[in-house]
């Protein structure tokens, strides 16, 4: 069975101008080795589990290290709420439960899905990088939309305490808390991850590319650190980032999107976030002007002293 977009991205004349993928050769060798040595079932199930675990903890690693480097504290968004060992251990235990008892059974469905929709695994059918990038972006837009509305619904007073309260256990999040959630939430919000695959998958590689991007993104926004200039995600227009989602954990209300800021802008649910940062900015500039006044007074006084001497 073909899916909706199998024939969408082939305006070859335009695409020929785009550069080749620089890591194409080593990637090709690794991919061909994998498909020659493992069955589709092994790749879809164990391969996907390994990709998920490796990327999850690799993406968490910088944040885990930063807590031991005093220099990095200046980038911590809620500096008054540092990570604790107890908090991280509690988080790790629930994450492991979710990964192996909720997410692994879902991952096991990957093989059935790819067989049913005839999703290829071979190197010959590998899409070019720009096709893959566009599809991953499409997946992110779909997931973000699902997340905005369902996350907002999980905040409804009548159901909040049963499900979403678990994720809000950490008022100041750190990378690992990205998937710290009630199993029902893992299923409800996790569905947003799969809609994009259902609509846009044209190769097994899309599933892994999308899972990598989604994990790096959600761990980035939960990291609790905002390091300027170094984060490539900030090159994407409308990317929310860590300050945006950190505020959701800190304030509890508003900023319901996972990745982009447009839904919160459209529905005005980013109002408190904007007001908070506007206030912070005006406080900062007031402090700076006070400092400047104080310094110029000191200089005047010193000047007078020198004259009288
Ligand atoms: Zn929430
Ligand atoms: Zn969160």
From TrEMBL:
Pfam families: FA_hydroxylase (PF04116). It comes from the Eukaryota. GO terms for molecular function: iron ion binding; oxidoreductase activity. Its main location: membrane. Residues 284-303 have a biased composition (Polar residues). The keyword Membrane applies. The chain crosses the membrane at residues 54-73, 94-113, 193-213. Residues 284-309 are annotated as: Disordered. GO terms for cellular component: membrane. Keywords: Membrane, Transmembrane, Transmembrane helix. GO terms for biological process: lipid biosynthetic process. Residues 138-269 form the Fatty acid hydroxylase domain. It is found in: Membrane. This is Methylsterol monooxygenase 1-like.
């Amino acid at each position: 069975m073909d899916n909706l977009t199998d024939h969408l991205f082939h305006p070859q004349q335009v695409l020929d101008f785009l550069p080749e993928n620089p890591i194409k050769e080593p990637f090709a060798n690794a991919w061909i080795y994998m498909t020659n040595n493992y069955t589709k079932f092994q790749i879809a199930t164990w391969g996907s589990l390994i990709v998920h675990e490796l990327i999850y903890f690799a993406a968490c690693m910088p944040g885990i290290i930063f807590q031991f480097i005093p220099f990095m504290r200046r980038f911590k968004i809620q500096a008054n709420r540092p990570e604790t060992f107890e908090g991280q251990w509690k988080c790790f235990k629930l994450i492991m439960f979710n990964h192996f008892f909720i997410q692994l059974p879902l991952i096991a469905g990957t093989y059935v899905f790819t067989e049913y929709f005839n999703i290829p695994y071979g190197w010959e059918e590998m899409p070019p990088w720009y096709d893959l990038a566009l599809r991953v972006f499409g997946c992110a837009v779909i997931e973000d939309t699902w997340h905005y509305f369902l996350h907002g619904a999980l905040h409804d007073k009548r159901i909040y305490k049963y499900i979403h309260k678990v994720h809000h256990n950490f008022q100041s999040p750190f990378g690992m808390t990205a998937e710290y959630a009630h199993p029902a939430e893992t299923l409800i919000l996790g569905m947003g991850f799969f809609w994009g695959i259902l609509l846009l998958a044209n190769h097994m590689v899309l599933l892994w590319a999308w899972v990598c991007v989604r994990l790096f993104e959600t761990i980035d926004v939960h990291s609790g650190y905002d390091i300027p200039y170094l984060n490539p995600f900030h090159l994407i227009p409308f990317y929310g980032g860590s300050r945006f989602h950190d505020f959701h954990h800190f304030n509890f209300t508003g900023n319901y999107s996972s990745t982009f800021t447009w839904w919160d802008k459209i529905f005005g649910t980013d109002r408190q976030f904007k007001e908070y940062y506007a206030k912070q900015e005006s406080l900062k500039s007031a402090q700076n002007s006070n400092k400047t006044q104080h310094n110029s007074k000191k200089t005047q006084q010193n000047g007078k002293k020198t004259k009288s001497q």
